[in-house]
Amino acid sequence: MKQKLNIIVLLHEDLLPPESVTGMTEEQIAPFKTEYDVIVTLEDMGHKVTPLGVTSDLSVIRKSVDEFQPDITFNLLEEFDGVGVFDAHVVSYLEMIRASYTGCNPRGLMLAHDKALSKMICRYHRIHVPAFGVFPLGSRIKRPAKLKFPLLVKSLTEEGSVGIAQASIVHSDEALAERVEFIHRQVGTDAIAEQYIEGRELYVGVIGNDRLQTLPIWELHFDKLREEAPRIATGKIKWDLKYRKKTGVQTRLATNLPHGLDNQIPRLCKRVYKALSLSGYARMDLRLTNAGQVYLLEANPNPELAYGEDFAESAEVSGIGYEQLLHRIINLGLRYQMRGQL
């Protein structure tokens, strides 16, 4: 892809970045950092870039595609009309109007967003996942007898650690009911309670449609968190920069892995990617127990792409610079064959 392209960058209207971030603090930039980094880098690469903010109206997408005739739409949209799982339908709409796009296809987005469905599929493929139970909105909260404490309670469909806090780990039926009700009330989705897996938290980026490449294994560290606190990626840890610095949260290359896991984990992540029909790029969230067992926690299509964040950093370590990473993602979008999944 040597030619310069006409690219629409699809993003949430509230995250349209300013032309310049000069004089802005890290905290002020954080909400739209991914959008800014992608847009500025694509422009620096010589592409014609048109940012398109979307909230709840699909017609603005059709109008922009008709007007600008983009070679591809760079999809950074993570919700539509305030609903996270609706991003799959936006991508379906792009397919229906025959517009090429970056990132994951509709089927992969739908399967991965439903944490219970994705776990059932992975379990069918003999991939280790935590035991779990689903608690729908409006239903009686009753723990299945086989589901043992401690449990981690979170939204069934929301991503980005929404609704996850230290209190998400529960040790009794009373605490379980309280946390499930919190998810129902505050997040507005069904809840899932899954077996809490003690161990190291690992992240693995995967790039590709059919031929897949895994990025180096990354690990989440808590250098200053109090000893008794669970090592989980809460919403505060993920989004509160001051708290991240206070607790010494860092992600970096995983080292001292048990013998053989350097090869086994990438193979596992490719199996998950294919089982869930993913395409473009994704990040696998894993837990490694002290006994050396690897569990898939979640598969995250279209993960955070900001410069300096996990996915881009692990790509950099593997020799893929930020411009080259965006170049690869665009090429995969241009080559992806729409299959009418939804």
Q: Descriptors for this entry?
A:
single chain, 342 residues, alpha+beta, Rossmann fold, Dna Ligase, domain 1, D-amino Acid Aminotransferase, Chain A, domain 1, 3 domains, six-stranded antiparallel β-sheet, four-stranded antiparallel β-sheet, 12 helices, 13 strands, 20% strand
How would you describe this structure to a colleague?
The chain is of the alpha+beta class and 342 residues long. It has 3 domains: 6-101, Rossmann fold (3-Layer(aba) Sandwich), CATH 3.40.50; 131-195, Dna Ligase, domain 1; 198-335, D-amino Acid Aminotransferase, Chain A, domain 1 (2-Layer Sandwich). The protein is 35% helix and 20% strand. It has 12 helices and 13 strands. The strands form 3 sheets. Strands 8, 9, 10, 11, 12 and 13 form a 6-stranded antiparallel β-sheet that branches. Strands 4-7-5-6 form a 4-stranded antiparallel β-sheet, with helices on one face. Helix 4 (87-96) runs antiparallel to helix 5 (106-113). The protein is globular, with a radius of gyration of 20 Å.
